[in-house]
Amino acid sequence: MAGIRVGSDGVKVVTAFLSRRVSWDEVDRFAVLPLGRFPYVGYVVLRDGRKFGTFGLSTSSRQTEANRLRVQRSVDDLNQVLAERREATGQPG
Description:
By secondary structure, the protein is of the alpha+beta class. About 25% of the residues lie in helices and about 45% in strands.
């Protein structure tokens, strides 16, 4: 299943064709950005500027506020996990 999976050592971005594992110290933030025809897609944004999006955390091409909020809530939850992880390890934000 496509999506963003959280683990103790970092996150795994899974798409239909490949997956990428990223350590917590590489992650800058999580964001909602467009990808192709999909207006709201969850992304992992790395400290070096690279971004990995996944359709597993996205909406259809219909641009409604409810669709945006559904993805945004998930991204907010991921950012909360990231903040808690940084606090627990003393990693700077």
